[in-house]
Amino acid sequence: MTEPDYLTTTRTAYDTVAVDYARLAAAELDMRPLERGMLAAFAEIVRAAGNGPVADIGCGPGRLTVYLDRLGLSTFGIDLSSKMIEVARQTYPNLRFSEGSMTEMDLEDGELGGIVAWYSIIHTPPELLPVVFAEFHRTLAPGGHLLMAFQVGNERLRVEQAYGHEVSCDAYRLPPDLIAELLNQAGFVVSARLEREAGERERTPQACLLARKPER
C-alpha cells in the first residue's frame, strides 16, 4: 500500500534534523512547569490504574520517554523517523524504542495502560486525525489514559527551516475544542485540559488534553 505523502515528508524532515533536534530541544521541558505538572498527574493516574505500559508516540530522540520512566512508568517510544530512533537508542540504551507510524501501530488491542502524544499529531492533516485517534483507542486498555500536547490555532503552516536545516513538511495549529470533539467521537472521555499563552521561543498558545478510554 502506498504511504500517504504527509508521512513521507514528515519522516524525511525529522531524519534530517534528528541530531540537532536532540541537542537543541534537550532542556525544553525544564522551562515548562505547567506541562511538567500535566505529565506528573498523568503518571500518577496511570500508575494507580495499573493497566499496562505507556507508549510515547512520536517520541523523537526519547527525551520525554526517559522523563516518563523517571516518573515511575514502564515506558517505551515509537517514532516515524529511523534517525530519531537511532539517536534515542544511543542516548538511552536502557529503554525500548521502535520505528513505526501512529496510524498503524504494531501493538495488540488493549495492550497499553497509557499513551503520550507530545506534539506528535501536529503533522497529521486534521481530516485524518480520526484515524489516529481510533488507533489510540484500539491499543489502549479499558480505563487507559491518553495525554496529548499541541499548538493552538486553526491553520496549516509550511515548514521549510527547522533546527538549522532546510526541510519541507506541513504543520498544523489546532483548536482544542475540535480535538476534544474528535476524541469524544473516537470513544474517549476528556477529563482535563490545559491551555496557556505562548512562552519563551513560542509563537502560539499551547494546549494539553488528558482523556480516558472508558472501562465499558
TrEMBL record:
Pfam families linked to this entry: Methyltransf_25
Listed EC numbers: 2.1.-.-
Any one GO MF annotation of this record: methyltransferase activity
Domain of life: Bacteria
Signal sequence range: none
Record keywords: Methyltransferase, Transferase
GO biological process, one term: methylation
Methyltransferase domain: residues covered: 54-144
PANTHER family: TRANS-ACONITATE 2-METHYLTRANSFERASE, TRANS-ACONITATE 2-METHYLTRANSFERASE-RELATED
Name of the featured protein: Class I SAM-dependent methyltransferase
Organism: Micromonospora sonneratiae
